[in-house]
Design goal:
Layout (H helix, E strand, L loop, with lengths): L4 H7 L3 H17 L3 E4 L9 E5 L13 E6 L15 H17 L3 E7 L12 H12 L4 E5 L1 H10 L1 H12 L6 H19 L8 H10 L1 H17 L6 H5 L7 H22 L7 H9 L3 H13 L13 H35 L14 H11 L1
Parallel strand pairs: 3-4, 4-5
Antiparallel strand pairs: 1-2, 2-3
């Protein structure tokens, strides 16, 4: 992928906003699992922020810290690989830094984004001069620079993840939605004329394929499932969790309590997007579900596959039955949460599906099937 700033200018309405948006898309794609982004209109100081909830060594940030991005489309037409950090530019950055600290006084890392790299050679050492001024204001600030070399490194490390973003901003053959829509309409008409799709009789295959690509129906099903999940959160009798069990190992019941708690936290995260109307926004939110929580609950489920009971020979029968009832209730709640969460993730996979493959020997009606779905779907 050739990073051409001239092409970015052509592909966006405003070069400054386009460059700012490009940096946000990269940051969001790579670091969204580490916290929550803030990218509001006319954000004071920096262009956008990331409030860290999971430690991110790459950004030198711990939970509670904030990372800020400052984007400046200062392009050097005579030498695009270099961006000047002369005194006016440094003063502008310093003022932006001061405003950033007024808005986010827990700023830990400040990332300065420019098209080219800043020079840092004798006699001026402009980058050192800038960092010295910034640390007079906040001594513990970490200053990082993003520029063309960094963007190239990101692309090569996360090609599959970032390729659509880079194509949007730098592709010379940018195709908009209208082009795709017009092409699709022409293609449907040709299929109608060639294969008599209008007299085709739909069958079981049509129904099955349509269920996979009917995003609106899948979105409604997703909303219903998220509502069901939300209703079941934190519904358990607290006595079930607080009970001092004597008929099972302490480690086992501690793990069961943690499974219940982590599943609830995953459910609460998913429920945050219940009011969204765009299925793709819901899917994007679910895809950002913190991976450590999912990993942890899977570890505990594997570990607690079988209950670890203790001999209850000397335990009164009343207590044995009481604890069995509590354990059954706890496991029922866990299974309900797990079932609803798994269904949500399966719906997410269907909605985010990029393609559906249809196989069959020649003459079995694959093209008629496709034409009918396009025409009547």
């Amino acid at each position: 992928m050739n990073i051409s700033w001239e092409q970015l200018e052509k592909n966006t309405e405003s070069k400054e906003i386009g460059f700012e948006s490009f940096n946000f898309q990269i940051a969001s794609a790579v670091y969204k699992s580490y916290g929550r982004f803030e990218y509001d209109y006319n954000t004071p100081g920096s262009e956008f922020y990331l409030k860290i909830t999971i430690a991110c060594p790459e950004l030198c940030a711990e939970p509670g810290d904030t990372v800020g991005w400052q984007a400046k489309f200062w392009i050097n037409r005579s030498d695009p690989d270099n961006t000047s950090f002369d005194r006016p530019h440094r003063e502008e950055l310093i003022e932006g830094f001061k405003k950033t600290l007024e808005y986010k006084n827990n700023l830990k890392t400040w990332i300065i984004c420019t098209p080219g790299r800043p020079a840092n050679t004798a006699p001026h050492y402009v980058r050192n001069a800038l960092e010295s001024e910034l640390r007079k204001i906040k001594p513990d600030i970490e200053v990082t620079y993003w520029n063309k070399a960094i963007y190239e490194a990101f692309y090569h490390e996360y090609t599959e993840l970032l390729a659509p973003i880079y194509k949007h901003y730098f592709s010379a053959r940018f195709i908009g939605f209208r082009d795709i829509e017009q092409y699709s309409q022409r293609r449907i008409k040709r299929l109608n004329r060639k294969y008599d799709a209008d007299i085709y009789t739909p069958g079981k295959a049509d129904k099955e394929v349509k269920e996979l690509i009917d995003i609106l129906s899948l979105g409604k099903e997703m909303h219903a499932r998220i509502s069901t999940l939300k209703e079941g959160l934190r519904k358990i009798d607290q006595n079930v969790l607080a009970c001092e069990y004597v008929t099972v190992e302490k480690a086992y019941i501690d793990d069961e309590r943690e499974i219940y708690d982590v599943l609830n936290r995953i459910g609460e995260y998913i429920s945050d997007v219940e009011s969204a109307t765009d299925p793709f926004l819901i899917v994007d939110h679910i895809l950002n579900c913190p991976k450590p929580m999912i990993k942890r609950v899977n570890e505990l489920l594997r570990k607690n596959r079988n209950g670890r009971h203790i001999s209850s020979a000397n335990v009164p029968e009343e207590i044995v039955q009481h604890e069995r009832r509590y354990l059954s209730e706890l496991r029922d709640h866990i299974n309900d949460l797990l079932n609803n969460i798994n269904i949500v993730f399966k719906l997410e996979e269907k909605i985010s599906r990029k393609s559906v493959h249809i196989f069959g020997t020649a003459g079995t009606g694959k093209t008629n099937l496709a034409a009918n779905i396009l025409c009547k779907g």
